[in-house]
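Sharing a chain and its predicted structure for anyone who wants a worked example. Both blocks are below, sequence first, tokens second.
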Amino acid sequence: VITRVELPADPRVAPPVEQTTYICAAEVQVNCNASNAMVQLHGTKDRDLVTYDEIPPLVVHAVLAVEDRDFFEHDGVDPAGIARAALSDIRGEGVRQGGSTITQQYVKQTYLNSEQTVNRKIKEAVMAVKLEQQLGKEEILTRYLNTIYFGRGAYGVQAASRAWFGHDLAAIEPGEAGIRADPDVPVR
């Protein structure tokens, strides 16, 4: 099955994702960004890409704690996580559990859609394994953190930090990193 399912495009040469453009005054020769721009332009998505090295470790730890605590140990699919989620759902323990890994979530939002079918879940799992064979964990996590929606029109961790906390990701504090932004929950 793994050899028959193709990734739609090599993610290393895929077209760039939409991101925010900054326009600075002529005296700003280097590093035009949100803090020194005269104007910010973004189409349908407010996104500012960051590298893995620009993501504070506390953000990485917070995301992994919530989304996929075994991310650096599995090969794209976490059978124990799937079993744990299924058991919790069968028992009816309130909130439905997710068994998808970060890699599976990235595959779903980048290559597939959100339809709730067994066929899509199988394809997602196979593609996650293939992606993990092609890219390193840090690259997958970086791409995931640059593409997910955090609410308030913000896609990716950098735009989310600005939208929710009013500052760049580099200035994120432990209490902020631990907040799971939900667009349906008002900020207090």
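Comments welcome. The radius of gyration is 18 Å.
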